[in-house]
Amino acid sequence: MGIINKKNVAIGLFFLLSAFYLLYVSLAYPYIGIETEEQSGEVKIAALENQGWAIRNELPLGSKVTAINDKPPLQHYTVNLNGEIEKIQTLTIEYEGEKVQFDNIEGLSLQHWLLYIMMPVLFFIIIVAIAYTLYNRKKSRYSSNLLILFFMTIALGLMTNSGAIRNDLYATFLNVTLFLFAPVILIHFLYAYFHEFSVKWFSKYIYFVLYVIVSVVSAAEAYFLLNLHYPLFMDRLPNVLLFFLIIFSLGLILTGYYKYKTTPYGPMFKYINFGMSVAFLPYIFFYLIPSLVLGQQIIPLDVAAIFAFALPITFVYMVTRQRLMDITFVMGRLRYYTVISFLPSVLLLVVGSFMVEQIFPAIKLAQLYLFIHIVLILFLMIKETLDFRLQRRLIAAKYSYQDSMHRMSQDMKKETNVVDLLKRLRYELKNVLNVKEVYVYSKHLKSPTYCVYREVPEHLLKHVTVVLQESHSEIGKLIETEEGFGIVVGHSLHKVTMVWCTGKKDFTTLNRDEKTYLQTVAHNTNIALENLALIEDLVKELKELKNDDHNQQYPTWLSRLLFTIAENQRKQLSIDIHDTVLQEQLYLYRKVDDLLQNRPFANDSLKAELMMFKESLLDSIHLTRETCNELRPAFIEELGLVQSLRNLIQQYQLRSNFTVYFDDQYFNVELDQERILAIYRIVQELLSNAMKHSEAKVVKLRLFNDGNRVHLYYSDNGIGMDYSIQKDLFSHFGLSGIEQRVNGLYGKMNVETAPGAGFRMEVTIPQVTVQKGVMI
């Protein structure tokens, strides 16, 4: 829970007391909505605002205001401040020589209640709940406190709108101050939050300077309000500064995104940018800029304020969810719907304007267009969601193309030859598309030769041949004629495979979904046919290798595959022996040791036999451990290649008569596990051969890297061998396995040996290093 201190309590009381005061102002004083102008010392009604009491009571424009609260109108502070009439109980006007007095002015429109009172209050309550949750559930961090302060500033700022339009001095001051400070607090939060992740892309002095600028403007606002003198430039200065602050904060987020978009923090920047855009851009483009340029707004302030809900929703979603929604997909769909909705929105607006036969102002047309465009975008998004959720339930399973594709993909995995695969395709198309008949055949591209998988009428073959000659026969090409429709599902250098349907039973043409389904089926079938062809070629190649007694070298891919399978089997066998046989031997060893230590023996010969049995068990345990270690070297991934080779050499020197000199001085790369294990196995095989056959006294090993290659040199002073009988030597002394390992890694192997001249081998393997988890 966050630490409760006097500062937090004071800030919390400020927000709560201010909110209660603003709510009181909104309820105690109705929104009048009268703009006045002074003419020759007289105050006259110049304009009436929407949602105000005056427009509901149809006060005539040009009326002379004779009294406000039974006093001269120029003595009322709102008239002197900005020429508006607000916060009154009584009003007397004169129109065409007749005086009218309004007493006990009260009442609010339903729209004003909802947009200026109910929604801001509800938003403030939600923000208080969110702030309380964050304050109690998260650790007390500076950035979380700033986020809470930002939320509260926005929420209280929305509540000030109702008091500001009533010309309440405190509400007007808070309205300007809070909305100016909110972007600066957000920038401060971004700096503190990402600083906790050691992410920094702008200086802290930026928000220091912005705090000073906003404080100066807020102080000027307070000075002019207290003196009831509001100069003309102050009407625009806060709006211009707010526009700059919002654009600047969006620019900072975009800069951070482009700098860190390839890092794990990229989605965070994208979410923040999306939330800020939804919250602020409607206010900027539809309220602030039109107000500054045209003096009118496309959307009122209360509607623009609704978009502020996007900010807390965005940040709370980021804080509470472990996995974030794919915002790139959402933004892409939103852009797509915005583009395709543009022309229909314009057409609807034009047609509607002609039908109404009324000339609308430009602002009203812009409002109508914006409303139509947003409704169309929402409609398309809701439609896509409903299509995904309800389409499978509402459409019969027989005609559900998604289910059909799922069935076909499952069945295609089971087929092992082309005939059965095409037979399955024919059956599925006939049932799903409800066609009369389905034919599948292949045609040779350079001769009039056909391969039919079921008898095809001759006239149909001729018809389709003519059609294919007139069009391109690429995969997924859909052909529709009076004889039916077909699609190309296979294409190679020599033949094209075609599926032809003689038409639907209900005599209708293919609709859009059916065409898309057929094209998808064609592409999937082509992939399956190509895979079957590759499998057939692979089987043929393996058969040729089996029958070729002169070829001792396997293809590279086959060598790597076989050794990978062998190593996996070795690993699994090592685990099985360790977890079963070895554990049972250890259990028996402990039992025998317990008998010898804790049981008295009357017969010494029995005790001696048990001692011998115990020693035999110990030898067996040691042998089992060595077997496990040879099957899968212990901790080779953790120790690395060099240390694993040193351990291996030490083991062989303990049970052999030769001395091994190992030089790894110039080996300084980190290889991938496949190459580490291959070099380890090569050294293991060479040392094993030296111990069994070489009768050597000295064995030398040298491992180093040069450029992008790894070199392994082996030499001994043993008896050597006759290298002219290479095939038999490779088979008997394990050199074939070494050669296949080297070949599988695209390496080279060179052997030099002769009777009485020792044995030398050089192995060169292309270097594949691993740096920070990335293979290079």
Task: Please describe the topology of this protein.
Blueprint: H1 6-28, E1 34-39, E2 42-48, H2 53-56, E3 64-68, H3 77-82, E4 84-85, E5 91-95, E6 98-102, H4 110-137, H5 142-165, H6 169-195, H7 205-226, H8 233-260, H9 266-293, H10 301-306, H11 310-320, H12 327-356, H13 362-394, H14 401-412, H15 418-432, E7 438-444, E8 450-452, H16 458-470, E9 478-481, E10 484-491, E11 495-501, H17 512-547, H18 556-598, H19 604-631, H20 636-639, H21 641-654, E12 659-663, H22 673-694, E13 698-706, E14 709-716, H23 726-732, H24 735-744, E15 748-753, E16 759-766, E17 770-771, E18 774-775
Parallel strand pairs: 12-13
Antiparallel strand pairs: 1-2, 1-4, 2-3, 3-5, 5-6, 7-8, 7-11, 9-10, 10-11, 13-14, 14-16, 15-16, 17-18
Helix pairs in contact: 1-5, 4-5, 5-6, 6-7, 6-8, 8-9, 9-11, 12-13, 14-15, 14-17, 15-17, 18-19, 18-24, 21-22, 22-24
